[in-house]
Structure formats: structure tokens, C-alpha cells
Amino acid sequence: MTSWDFSVAGSSSCCNPSKQGCIGPSKTGCGDSRTKNEQLSSSQGSCPGTCCSPPTANPSSRIDKSPVQNTADVEKLGTGNEHVVLSISGMTCTGCETKLNRTLGTVSAVSDLKTSLVLSRAEFNVDLSLDSVEDVMKHLERTTEFKCKRVQSQGYSIDLIVPGSSSNFASRTWPVGVIEITPVDDHTVRVVFDPCVVGPRDLIENTWSPPVKLAPVGGDPSLQAGSKHVRHVGYMTLLSAILTFPVLVLAWAPLPKREIEYASASLALATIVQAAIAGPFYPKALKALVFSKVIEMDLLIVLSTSAAYIFSVVSFGYLVANKPLSTGQFFETSTLLVTLIMVGRWIAALARQRAVESISIRSLQASTAILVDEKVGVEREIDTRLLQYGDNFKVLPESKIPTDGTVVNGSSEVDESMLTGESKPVEKYPGSIVIAGSLNGSRVITVRLNRLPCDNTINAIAMMVDEAKLSKPKLQNLADRVAAYFVPVVVVLTIITFIIWIAVGVTIRRESGSDSAIHAITYAITVLIVSCPCAIGLAVPMVIVISSGVAAENGIIFKSADAIELAHKTMHVVFDKTGTLTRGRLSVIEKHCTNPDKIPLLLGLIENSRHPVSVSVATHLKDAGIRALTVPEPKSLTGKGVEAKLDHKKLRAGNSRWLNLSDHELVQPLLSRGLTVFCFTIGNELIAVYGLEDELRPDAADTIETLQRNSVMAHIVSGDDDGAVQTVASKLGIPGENCRSRSSPADKKDYVQSLLGTGKSGKRSVVVFCGDGTNDAVALAQATIGVHMNEGTDIAQSAADVVLMRPALASILVMMNASRKAVNRIKFNFAWSFIYNVFAVLLAAGAFVNARIPPEYAGLGELVSVLPVIAAAVLLRWSKI
Predict the structure, then answer these.
(1) CB-side exposure of 287: number of CA atoms within 13 Å?
(2) Would the pTM count as exceeding 0.85?
(3) How many Cβ atoms are within 10 Å of 127's Cβ, its own excluded?
(4) Please, which pLDDT band fits residue 497 given cuts at 50, 70 and 90?
(5) Which range has the worst mean pLDDT, 68-82, 278-292, 820-834, 842-856?
(6) Exposure check for the chain: N or C terminus, fewer CB within 10 A?
């Protein structure tokens, strides 16, 4: 497998890959209900098995709003599970994510829930025998005031602009191959189709009359909700500022004395601000309290702005009654408070969105492709989303390659540094594989599509990165616990502040009770607003999002946030030998054959094996002009070799240990020289012996030396013979006691398990296992962090926590360094959040003599607290890892 061979799941070839394909990763792009590991585990160019299954969701099913399921509509419900990804609009702070988790957690049909405040996203499975996806979404919107939109559905989807009403269009008879048609808005529908039956281009050009049009591209689905939220908050902030400015002028400018007129105008403007701008906070806060039992930041905003506004209204009433209060009205406080809160939220949301966009892997996807119609000899430019299986497309000089494919005409040099990190362009000619997003050189090439744009390298990497973004490390649990107690503690501190200042006013300043209460209210309002749990909530996820994106740009795919958190603590790195420490490009340097006439049977036995040793021997035989004889049903035995039965005799090819030939006179000399030995037997007769030698990766020695210099122990565990393992170990300076040869998958797992024992500090050791083959999958899963060299099997890749896109061992060091920098940023964010909130609350409460925060400026607190957290994460973009 090449270093770019990502695949989409379950490729049992339920469909013919030569048929029409799937669209690209955008708002109107592919949606696949499978898990990320499933999506990455099929073979190249085949159509995923799940795409041929019709959807099981039933729109008529009903949701039970309580934890106990309502069985009234059991007959209307679907069957099975459906994977759902929602973009959530309206999330602003960690309390929002808590509310989202608790709300969906009360729905019995929802399982495997993952949420992200930074991505404004929720991902979960729905048991369709209990509830429908549509009713889960309605329940979420009703109880939280969030707006949610599904960005991923079963099968492949495309958004179309249709003539007339979208509802009427969806009610038509569906063409063959279409699974579902759902209205998106008045004139747009989302068509879910089986790309093995009909392609998107055929749907648009040949299916409907009058014709339909492809809807505009919406970009990365994970960014759409965030962009929409930023725009909405920006508009509301602008409106609030426009309404607030006259109130400030009336309150602070040296105008003629017309108190009632000015106060009346201020009341009208402040009322609009309170209703139109601050109004949406009320249902959000109350529903969070009632349905999710969460006291969130919105409640603090409601309490503080309401207190300032209501007090000003009461004061206005006294003014109209010719009994003005000594403090007068402070409508400017409530309006400026709301405006500054909105400014803080808008800037924080904008910074958060820009940070996420800056590491969007999907932005590498080309938006158009030049389709080559060989039948009529016509070329035309089409949207990349309309490419189908069997298409040929032309790549012009200095342009991005739209999707993965094979060159069929022309030659050029292609810059693949976006994936491999190799700055030198790679020569491509007919038969060469090209990668989506790589940059063509100075000549034109024609490429046959191998993989649909939604299943290509770019999308595969992006899905693995998203998997890390949605996962939460253990440090997040600490942040969640602190955030959960934050708002209640602030409310208590507010009450204490109010009581203390009333006591100070009455007993020390000798003020009246009303005057003391008025002053106490201003301090209480300031405490409510200036404290901000958002910085705590963003401390971890912002760093995870940015660091995982930066690592991906450096060829390291973290598939879990735990790997980012723990990699810098690595104490042991265990390497597989063949294909990991070595290139896996074995060459036959010595052979002995007792019966040359039987060698064609050996080639027939091993020619379809993917094991590096078998591949090398098969290549050697083919180069020698050997033609394979048919061998029925060869069977691969992990860690042993290949066997089959022919004419009542067993044909076996594999390692000498399995065949009990280690002491044979032809085998022993090869083993003693440290060669990898491959034997072929028929019955119990040894037919041929091959001695193979592998080449170390060029950076292997430097990587091992750096690890040992940093007090990290290096180990080798291999299924190869002892001589070959010890030869590699001696070249790399790895102690013999840290080497294990002739290891089965179970042996590798046991060795990793032995290293996971308690370390010197009383904690379990952090063990990294680095491998590439199927026989490494168990050890990859057993280790604290499984690292997959992206030149091996899909099974091993699915078991790993980290995938090295660039097959270089130095990436292990980069991985550890990226983890160290990320954890340090998280620690800084926690420290800043603590220092800010302690200092800000003390300053707001009047704990410092002659220094306090005026209540109208308390809304700046969110900006001051959140921006350093976002900046600390974003600066990772320019940090050398």
C-alpha cells in the first residue's frame, strides 16, 4: 500500500466501481453514516457497501421527551441505528455545550454522543426503533433554543435548486437510485442517492424535466454553523451599538436640562435593546435551567442586565412622579452592558471561527475539474462534486489535482509536499497514482478517477482530524467540573457582595438603606458580568482543534485527543521491524533450490499475499521469468506464512520457525548471518530457501538516538528470526534485552502489556507502539498510543491512535513535541482563566481601595478573558514542532 492509500469503508464491492460516483466534501457533499474507522477501512476505488442500503429513518416516528420511551407509535418507527452529525447554531460558551450534552443525554434513543463547542457540532447514533432523527432535532431545538442542521446523512447527498416548490418536488416519484429527497428551503432540496446506481451528474443532466441546478457550494460542513453564528452575532452587535449610542450621548453629553424628555428617549431605546438584543438570552437561560438543570452564563447576563434595566425603569417612574432618586437613571449602564457583551461574544466567536478555518484540511480540495469525454472527444469544466466513477479528467499545469486517480496520458512532476512533506516534486507518468490536493507541475496530464472526491485522501485525513477534535482528553473533565460549579459560585459571590455593600453603606458610610441598596446593586451587577467561564470551557478544545490541525499539516494525524495529551509523557517506544524501522523493501540476496520444477507452485501460492516477505520473493520470481501455476485457495496465517492443499499434499511458504526448519543445514547459515529466511515446502520436503535483506529507514538511527537521549527506551518486537532482529538492533544501538524476535501478534501484545506496568512515579507507563501490518493491530490497540506507519494495512490503521502520513520515523519525535506544546498551552490557559477570574471578581466587588470596574464596562470581561485563550491556541500555528 502506498503512503496515500486511504479508503472508504466496508468495501465488499457491493457495487461496480466503474459506475457513477459521488460528490465532494461540502455542504452539498457526501454524507456517510459509518464511523470514521469504518470509512477508512475499505479498498481503493470500490463502492462502499453501505451506500447500497436504503435509509431506515422514518419521518413519521415520534420522540419521547422523557427518559422513558413512549411506545404509542412503535409501528411507525424504523429499525437499526443511524449515525447523525448536526451543526449547532447558537453555542457561545461551555454552559451551552453542557446544556447540549444533557439535553441529548435524556433522549433514550441517542447513544455514542460527542459534542464540540469549538466546532459547533454534535455527533451521535440514533436507535430508530425508539425515535426518528427529525424528532430528536425538534426536541433539541425546543428545549435549548439552539438551531440545528444536519450536515451528514446516510448514503451520498447533493443539494439541488429545483423549479417551483421544494416540497412539491420532494413528493414526486423518486428516480431509480435515489434514496431520499428532503426540502432544505423553499427552492432547494437535498437528494440522497446510491452512487453505484446513479451518479450526481446523471441526476442533474438526464433525470428531471424541467432541469435542476446544483446548489452553491457551502464549504466545510463543520464550519458552516460557526460562520452563520458569527454573522448573526455581528448584525445584532451592530444594531445594539446603533441603539446604545444615542443613550450614551443623552446621559454623558453636556445637553440642556430636559430630564423627562431625555429619560423617555433613553427608556424607549433601552427597552428595544433589552427586548431585541438581550431578549433571546431569557428563553435560553430559563430552558437551560428547567430542561437541562444548567445554570449558565446566559443566566448571569439575564440577571445583571435585568437588574440594571428594571432599576432604571423604577427610577424613571420616581422622576415622572417628581420624586427623583439621588442616583437618577442609568439606562446607559444596561444598554452599554448588553452592547459590550455582544461585542465580546462577536469578537470571541470570530476569533474562534478564524482559528478553526485556518486549519481546515478540506480547503485543499479543488472546486472544479476538467472532464474528458472520450466518446465524443469533448472537454468541459464541471464542479468537482459531479465527478463519477469511470470519469477521466484533465489536470492543467500549476493546478490542483481534484481527486485521487491514475495517470492515463501525459507525464509531469507533481508537488505532493502537502501530504508527504517531501519538497522535491515526484515524476508522474501513465500508471502512476496521483493524490487529491497535490499540485501539478508544468505539463498536462489526464487522470482516471480512482476515488470519489468525498472518499479521497483529503476527505479521509479531514475525517480523522475531526475525530480528534470531537474527542475529549482527561484534562477536559477537570475543565468541565470547574465550569459546572462556576456560575453557581459566582451567584453566591454576587449575593455576598450585595449584602456586604449594604452593610458597608449603612454602618460605615452612614447612607440610607435605599442608597446603600443602589450602590450594592451596581457592585453585584459588575460581579455577575465580569466573571467568565468561557475561558475555562475553551482552554482545552481550542488547543485540541488547533494542535490537531497543525499536526495534520506536518503529516501526523491524531485520531484521539488522549493521544495529544499523553504523547509527551512517552517512556517506551516499541517498534515493529519490517516496514517500520526498515523500508520493508526486502531483496533476495541468496537462495537454495532443491527442486526448480516446483517453483511455479510457490509463485502461485504467494503471488496474492500482501506480506512484505512474500511480495519480495514473488517479485524476485517474476523477474526471473517464472510463470505461476494455479494453487487453489491459498490461506494466509498471520505471523507464519501461506499454505494451501494440492493433490492431497500441503504447500507451505513462510518462516523457518513455523516450518520447524531453523536447524536445517540450508537454513541455519542464512539465519546466522541475520538474514530474513523464507522457506517453501511440499509435504515435509524442503523445496526452496530464500535469504532476504532489508534496508533501514534513513532516519531510524537518529530517531532512536534522540529518543534515548531524552530518556525514552526503544524496543524492537518482530515476527522475524532472531538473527535479523539482532542485526537491526546492533545497527541502531538498541540493547539486546529490549528485543523480541519470532513474535506472534499475541506475543507483541504481551510484550507491550509488560511495559505498561507501574513506573517509578507510581503511575502506569506511557507506551507507544509503532507498526504497519495487520499482525501489529493487536499491539497497536494494546499500547497507550498506537502509531501507524501509513504504508501498511487498513486494519492496523483503524486500531491506531496516531497515523503518520509521512513514512518517516522522525515523525515520532514531532508527535511528542506537538503533544508537549499543546499540553503547555492548555496549562497556560487554565492558569490565565484562574488568575483573570479571581482578580476580576475582586476588582468588580470593590475589594481594592479606590479601584473598581464600573458596571457598564463589565461586559468587556468576556473579551479580556477569552481572547488570550484563543491567542495561545492560535499561536501554535506558528510554533515550530
Answers:
(1) 18
(2) no
(3) 18
(4) very high
(5) 68-82
(6) N
